[in-house]
Amino acid sequence: MAATDHPGPGTEGRAGDDRGLRSGRPRAWVLVVTVAVLLAGGVCAALVAAGGGGNRGAAPKAGPKVASVAVTRTDLSDSREMEGTLGFGASRTIKGAAGGRVTWLPRVGATVKRGRQLYRVDDRPAVVFYGGTPMYRRLGTAGAVGRDVRVVADNLRALGYDIGAQPPPGTTVRPRAAARRTAPPGGSPSRTPAPGTRSRPVTVKGGDGVLTSSLIAAIKRWQPTAGMEPTGVLDVTDVVVTQGAVRVGKLDAQLGDEASAELLTLTATKKTVTVPVDVLDIGSIRKGQRVSVALPGRSTTPGRVTAISTIIQGTGDDRDGAAGNPSQQLDVTVSLKNAKAVRGVDAANVKVRFAAKTRKDVLVVPVGALLALSEGGYGVRVPGGRLVAVETGMFAKGLVEVSGEGIAEGTKVETAS
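Request: output the structure for the sequence above.
Response:
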């Protein structure tokens, strides 16, 4: 909207009545242009210059219509809506060890908690323990030190077993030397230290556990309750370490199958929403941020950002980036406040609304009401033709936050309609 200020009656020579006319140039040459603002909602105002230039002989074109609107007070939110997927999150496939046959599997949808069996091979159970380090070796040598030992110790303690005291970090431990079975002529086998072997001292670090005699005794007491022989030794296949309780999402094997193949797939127990977000937009999203999730059937439910992935994924036809310019994205995980809202839905496409910024109780006008002042900054035109300079704040949904002298709730201003 082009606007050239014309002095009304009684305003000739009055200083300060028109803040847009202070350049000292003839009034006929003052340039006032409408602000061109492009928002997420697609609001755009045309730029028009007034006061000279161009073809003077051309017939004037009709400008945009002008309407009068009131300054309003409201909450302004710069929200964005993104596509997401409702489900149980990322899945994890569990494989068995070489040899043996599958003799028991849980049902699909079952929840398996700490200390419960996940599957059985040759009728020997694999039990769920919580932790961050998987079983990667056979634990049977007293004095063994490592994070895997800490997982065993923590879980047995959580299950109610007395594991005794654990050596603190900085303690030096000498694991017991490996032994082998020997049988003298005509005698019974016995264990003797393996020749040439000598255990080296190990310093306990933060997060390590130590396989003490007390811990071995606790393992022996626990094993019969888990369906194992009380040997005090744990093999790699005896324990499956997870972050917490898990849900059986799919069975990949059947009873009688070789256990070395994929057995089953695990997921989280709670439904969440996964939203792929472009790396360039991730800065406006933070952990703990509240969101609104639009579900199938047009109902909505509140949620909260619980995790932001650190693994960048490429999208587009060329995922390796060899050609083209595929975007890079991170997965944002949103938990739902009301689990009952999605009780009957296991998987669905949803929309998640993120409120990047919110301004509470501010004065706003339509973007089309803003005019660029010749000396810089912006103003609005009030009825009667006077320009009033304003300070602008947040732009959102075709509105802009304004403040300034003479701007109050209910003040009438002109805007392009």
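Confidence is low (pLDDT under 50) at residues 1-57, 179-183, 190-197, 317-325.
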